[in-house]
Write a structure and sequence with these properties.
InterPro entries: HTH_LacI, LacI/GalR-like_sensor, Lambda_DNA-bd_dom_sf, Peripla_BP_I. The protein is α/β, with parallel strands linked by helices. Helices cover 44% and strands 16% of the residues. α5 links the parallel β1 and β2.
Length: 339
C-alpha cells in the first residue's frame, strides 16, 4: 500500500508539501499540486481518515444511529441496518453503527471529529431527542421515520397512514363493517414510536371515513396476552368479520394458531391482513395478504437522500414511499350473518 512518503518521492516534493496539498492549509503552486495529484492517482494512494478530515474531503462513512430499546424488535431493526449497509457498500461507503448509549453523544462526537460524511437515523420516536441535534449539526442527515416535527429535516419512510387506508379500503370493499386492529405492545405506543402510531391513527381515520366499527388491542408477546387480546376484540365486536395485524412475526403466528384452535376459518369466517411487516407471510398457515414494509426500499432511499445532501441539496422534505398490497387469499367477502 502506497504511503505519503511514496507520493512525495514520485512527485519530487517534500512530505509536508503533500500534506499541505491534501489539507489546503497553504497555497501550493498549481504545477506542484498537479504533480502531487498525479502521483496520488498513479500510486493509488488513499489518505487515512485523519488526513481526509483535514483535507475536507469525504471519509466515505455514514454514521447510522440505531438505539436499542426494551421494546425493540431486534430482527426488524437489523433488517434496516443491513439494508442501509448494503446500499452504502454499493457506492463504496462504510457504516459506523451508533447504538443506545451513543444516541446523542455519539452524533456530536462523529460530527465534531468529521468522522462521517452524513448521518442516517433509525427507530425514531415522535419526540425523538436526536432530532433537535440533527437540526443543529452542520452535517447531512436523513431520518428513516417521521417525527412529530419534521421542520429542517430530511425524512423517508413507508406511508403508514396510506397503508392503513389501503387495508381498510380492501376490507370495506369486500363488505366488512366491523374490523379489529391487533397492534404492538402498549410499551411501544407509550414510548412514542412513530410508525405504529401513524398506522393506528390512519386505521381509525380510514374506518371513520367508511363508517366502519373498530376495536383495538395491544397485546404483549406471550400466549396469554395474545389470547386475551383476541377475546377483547370479539367481546367488543361480536360481529367482527375482519382483522388487521400490525405486530411482530411471532405474535401474528400465535394469533393464527389460536384462531385455528377455535375453529375460525380464514377467510370464510374472518378475513385477515398483515400490515407493514418486514417478514414474509407466504409461509404462514394460512398465508396472509400483506402490505409489506421493505427495509431495502427505505435503506436505498435514505442513502440516496444523504448523498444528495452531501453533494449540495439539503432541502428539508418528507419522502413517503407508497404502500403496495400483496394478495395471498386470506381476505374474502364478509360472511352473511343469520338474522
Amino acid at each position: 500500500m502506497a504511503t505519503i512518503n511514496d507520493v512525495a518521492r514520485l512527485a519530487g516534493v517534500s512530505i509536508s508539501t503533500v500534506s499541505y496539498t491534501l489539507s489546503g492549509n497553504r497555497s501550493i503552486a498549481e504545477s506542484t499540486r498537479n504533480r502531487v495529484v498525479s502521483a496520488i492517482q498513479e500510486l493509488g494512494y488513499r489518505p487515512n481518515a485523519g488526513a481526509r478530515m483535514l483535507a475536507g474531503t469525504r471519509t466515505r462513512i455514514f454514521a447510522l444511529t440505531a438505539p436499542v430499546r426494551p421494546d425493540t424488535q431486534a430482527g426488524v431493526l437489523m433488517s434496516f441496518v443491513l439494508a442501509v449497509a448494503t446500499a452504502a457498500r454499493k457506492i463504496d461507503y462504510d457504516v459506523l453503527l451508533l447504538t443506545a448509549d451513543e444516541a446523542s453523544t455519539g452524533l456530536e462526537r462523529v460530527t465534531s471529529s468529521r468522522l462521517a460524511d452524513g448521518i442516517i437515523a433509525l427507530d425514531v420516536s415522535l419526540d425523538d431527542e436526536r432530532m433537535p441535534l440533527l437540526r443543529a449539526l452542520n452535517i447531512p442527515a436523513t431520518v428513516i421515520g417521521v417525527p412529530a416535527d419534521t421542520s429542517g429535516l430530511v425524512c423517508v419512510d413507508l406511508d403508514f397512514e396510506e397503508a392503513a387506508h389501503l387495508a381498510v379500503g380492501r376490507l370495506a370493499d369486500l363488505g366488512h363493517r366491523s374490523i379489529g386492529l391487533l397492534g404492538m405492545s402498549r410499551l411501544t405506543y407509550d414510548w412514542g414510536a412513530n410508525y405504529p402510531l401513524r398506522f393506528r391513527d390512519g386505521f381509525f381515520a380510514a374506518s371513520d371515513d367508511r363508517d366502519i366499527a373498530t376495536a383495538f388491542v395491544m397485546p404483549d408477546g406471550d400466549m396469554d396476552s395474545i389470547r386475551r387480546g383476541i377475546d377483547e376484540l370479539f367481546s367488543a365486536m361480536p360481529t367482527m368479520t375482519a382483522l388487521v395485524m400490525h405486530a411482530g412475526e411471532s405474535v401474528q403466528v400465535t394469533v393464527l394458531e389460536i384462531l385455528a384452535a377455535r375453529g375460525i376459518s380464514i377467510p370464510g369466517q374472518l378475513s385477515v391482513i398483515s400490515a407493514c411487516a418486514v417478514f414474509d407471510t407466504s409461509a404462514f398457515s394460512p398465508p396472509l395478504d400483506e402490505i409489506p414494509l421493505s427495509a431495502e426500499d427505505s435503506g436505498v432511499r435514505a442513502v440516496e437522500l444523504t448523498i444528495r445532501q452531501i453533494t449540495g441539496d439539503r432541502t428539508p422534505h418528507v419522502d413517503l414511499l407508497p404502500p403496495r398490497y400483496v394478495e395471498r387469499g386470506s381476505t374474502g367477502p364478509a360472511p352473511v350473518r343469520e338474522p
